[in-house]
């Protein structure tokens, strides 16, 4: 596995970033559900980036609780299963909000499916205003539409919020040419073009998400969310990650 650090020179300056946190990341080493230690660690990492004065918004997945496609495959109507998946992301968003507030990071949850007694409905300008006030905004319920994923929701919200970069926190510290957990010779890409990711089907995010990020020229930074402190580190141009953007 490549351990060379990615070094961008000079380090990029990000004003506003969106972090996509998959449900899988929130379950830590468990089989399903939420791992409170992992949720707390991610909250600390988010707080550390916010403390740098960077606007932060989050999109959370729900795969640790419910994945629509697999249930649809088992016989349930796809759209209904997808709505259940979107509700699962709200559970994760509330857990993350709680963990952030426990360390005094001001947050708001906005949901793409209105549920006013639980959280605010998604309103773009209001989300902007929250971030201007230094609050971390957590976007839940994906895009609000079945047949989509929270990766696509992340690319959509990053576009709407005018984010400088979309970060995808995964288990590994970037995109590899083979599975680094199975193949010790797997090499990590430092940079990749959007088209390469699409044509080689590199599995960074689904195609709809990559296409949206490409159209709106939002770089995608893939890094390990499992390593404490990595979120702030990669934003300063250090550490290990893969950057997906247009070829220079
Ligand atoms: N989902 C959906 N529309 C969206 C986002 C999510 O229908 O815009 C559903 C879909 O069923 C998906 C589930 O919510 O399987 C959980 O989201 P995702 O699989 O993206 O979560 P992650 O893999 O990031 O944990």
TrEMBL record:
Subunit note: Homohexamer.
Molecular-function annotations in GO: ATP binding; UMP kinase activity
Domain named Aspartate/glutamate/uridylate kinase: residues: 15-224
Protein family: Belongs to the UMP kinase family.
One GO biological process term: 'de novo' CTP biosynthetic process
GN (gene name): pyrH
Regulation affecting activity: Inhibited by UTP.
Binding positions for ATP per the UniProt entry: 20-23, 63, 67, 170, 176, 179
Top-level taxonomic group: Bacteria
Organism lineage: Bacteria, Pseudomonadati, Pseudomonadota, Alphaproteobacteria, Rhodospirillales
Compartments in which it is found: Cytoplasm
Keyword Plastid belongs to the record: no
Main subcellular location of this protein, as a coarse class: cytoplasm
Protein name in the entry: Uridylate kinase
């Amino acid at each position: 596995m490549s351990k060379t650090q990615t070094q961008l020179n000079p380090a990029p300056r990000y004003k506003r970033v969106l972090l996509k946190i998959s449900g899988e990341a929130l379950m830590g080493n468990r089989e399903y559900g939420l791992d409170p230690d992992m949720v707390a660690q991610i909250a600390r990492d988010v707080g550390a980036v916010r403390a740098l004065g960077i606007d932060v918004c989050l999109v959370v997945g729900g795969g640790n609780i419910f994945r629509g496609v697999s249930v649809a495959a088992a016989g349930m109507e796809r759209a209904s299963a997808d709505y259940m998946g979107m509700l699962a992301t709200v559970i994760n968003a509330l857990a993350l909000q709680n963990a952030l507030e426990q360390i005094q990071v001001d947050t708001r949850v906005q949901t793409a499916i209105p549920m006013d007694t639980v959280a605010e409905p998604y309103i773009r300008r209001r989300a902007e205003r929250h971030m201007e006030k230094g609050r971390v905004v957590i976007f839940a319920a994906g895009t609000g539409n079945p047949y989509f994923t929270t990766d696509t929701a992340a690319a959509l919200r990053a576009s709407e919020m005018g984010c400088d970069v979309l970060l995808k926190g995964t288990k590994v510290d970037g995109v590899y040419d083979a599975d680094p957990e199975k193949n010790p010779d797997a090499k990590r890409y430092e940079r990749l073009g959007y088209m390469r990711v699409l044509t080689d089907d590199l599995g960074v995010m689904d195609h709809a998400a990559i296409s949206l990020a490409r159209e709106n020229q939002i770089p995608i930074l893939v890094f390990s969310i499992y390593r404490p402190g990595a979120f702030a580190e990669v934003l300063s141009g250090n550490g290990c990650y893969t950057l997906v953007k247009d070829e220079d």
